[in-house]
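Structure in, sequence out. Go:
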């Protein structure tokens, strides 16, 4: 029988503490898809998007990740419309440092004045006095890294953010940031079919930093019928996507997958992945699978 969504528990997902702050369940929700095509403009069905957010919280998700550039501004606004006033245990993480000029178009802007403006805009849209986790969305090659991070340090010192995270960085950039300030999370692209940032994941695991993989459900050709992912999924009456999420949760104790969707049914499918228990052989088989497409 296919898996059905059940409320998440700490035991099912494992937990991670964000710095010296709150503890969250390790299966979160990514709010990028609560927008129009190309992560631009309003979603086709805003009411369904708000239902997704409410259902996520009902199912025990207590980490929601977003960014000012999603829409832009649309994702953050919908989160506040759907969930404010927020449950006490809910952590909303957001990001600044990318700007938009159109669908699927992204530009980096790490100037301190822009990051301050972005953060203050996120505070207003999310209706928060302080953002628990604020992440530099991407290093800007035209701005000294220490200047961009300095802006986040200033915002933290002013009480506008509680903890600093990074996104789209390599190990060297992580080390540079750690030399300047405390970093609690890194958000990079990582999934079963794309492990290009495995070295960053390993560094985060070793240093007990949260690793937030974006695009976590991508499976590429690994999900083809008769392949290792398909075989494991069939053994668990699960979908390949659910197994991909279960593999991520097993890959590192600091892994924080944030699968996203704009449909309640897909959200429930993703949450049900917490019920999949892979054995050591299955984990190793998937780890050794040929990475393709």
């Amino acid at each position: 029988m296919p898996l059905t969504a059940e409320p998440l528990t700490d035991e099912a997902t494992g937990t991670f503490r964000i710095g010296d702050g709150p503890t969250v369940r390790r299966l979160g929700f990514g709010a990028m898809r609560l927008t129009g095509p190309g992560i631009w403009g309003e979603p086709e069905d805003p009411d369904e998007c708000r239902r997704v957010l409410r259902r996520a919280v009902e199912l025990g998700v207590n980490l929601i990740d977003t960014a000012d550039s999603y829409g832009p501004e649309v994702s953050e606004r919908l989160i506040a419309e759907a969930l404010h006033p927020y449950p006490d245990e809910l952590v909303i993480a957001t990001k600044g440092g990318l700007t938009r000029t159109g669908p699927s178009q992204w530009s980096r802007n790490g100037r301190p004045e822009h990051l301050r403006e972005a953060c203050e805009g996120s505070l207003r849209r999310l209706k928060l006095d302080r953002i628990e986790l604020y992440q530099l969305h991407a290093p800007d090659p035209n701005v000294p890294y220490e200047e961009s991070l300095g802006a986040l340090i200033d915002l933290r010192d002013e009480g506008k953010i509680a903890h600093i995270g990074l996104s789209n960085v390599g190990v060297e950039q992580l080390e540079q940031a750690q030399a300047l300030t405390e970093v609690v999370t890194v958000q990079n692209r990582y999934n079963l079919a794309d492990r290009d940032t495995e070295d960053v994941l390993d560094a985060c695991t070793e240093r007990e930093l949260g690793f937030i993989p974006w695009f976590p459900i991508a499976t590429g050709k690994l999900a083809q019928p008769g392949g290792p992912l398909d075989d494991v999924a069939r053994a668990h009456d699960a979908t390949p996507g659910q197994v991909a999420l279960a593999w991520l949760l097993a890959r590192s104790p600091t892994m924080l997958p944030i699968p996203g969707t704009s449909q309640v049914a897909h959200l429930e499918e993703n949450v049900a992945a917490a019920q999949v228990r892979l054995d050591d052989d299955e984990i190793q088989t998937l780890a050794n699978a040929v990475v393709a497409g």
